[in-house]
Design a protein that fits this description.
Length: 181
């Protein structure tokens, strides 16, 4: 149906908005955040919005039915709660990511091996990216130029923001890059 490159696991951007790619869309600083009723952003980080969008695209394109999506996300939340997740809502999009990965593997959009390899490469990219530079996959293929070591966790890395237009101090820069979730 599709290639691994088209539906690669995050952090590779695959979402488009009409004829404009997400990168160009995110550079538009006139776009305001989607807010909840309490006036807070609906997403805590851009990877959450991307995961939400990818899930919606999979349903809209008929890759997964709404019922299948409901069943898988419900199962992922139940598994997390059984494993000790307090279900306060702050881990909801991690469950969404787990459901996306599961569905994409089950539907053959990419393999578990492809996902594992991309996670491994992403860990290398994080380790080898020079300080002050956006994290990119290309850094997975170069030796680190650091004078110190970074700890590499054995667990799967947390999802990473692919597109960010905010600095840590909350100011909008209109910059596109990669950063920690």
């Amino acid at each position: 149906m599709t290639s691994d490159l088209l539906f690669a696991p995050l952090p590779m951007p695959i979402v488009t908005t009409g004829d404009v790619g997400l990168a160009e869309f995110c550079q538009d600083t006139t776009v305001t955040p989607l807010l909840r009723d309490e006036g807070q952003p609906a997403f805590n980080d851009s990877w959450e919005a991307e995961a939400f969008t990818i899930g919606k695209i999979l349903v809209a394109n008929g890759v997964v039915t709404p019922r299948e999506w409901f069943d898988v996300i419900s199962d992922e939340i139940r598994k997390a709660v059984a494993a000790g997740d307090p279900d306060r809502g702050d881990t909801y999009y991690q469950h969404w990511m787990n459901a996306l990965e599961r569905i994409c593997i089950e539907k053959g959009l990419f393999s578990a091996d492809t996902l594992a390899e991309n996670r491994r490469l992403w860990g290398l990219a994080v380790k080898n990216t020079p300080h002050g530079h956006p994290i990119e996959f290309k850094y997975a293929f170069v030796e680190g130029e650091h004078a110190h070591e970074h700890e590499v966790a054995n667990a799967a890395p947390e999802p990473m923001a692919v597109f960010s237009t905010d600095d840590p101090d909350g100011t909008s820069t209109g910059r596109v890059g990669l950063g920690n979730a």
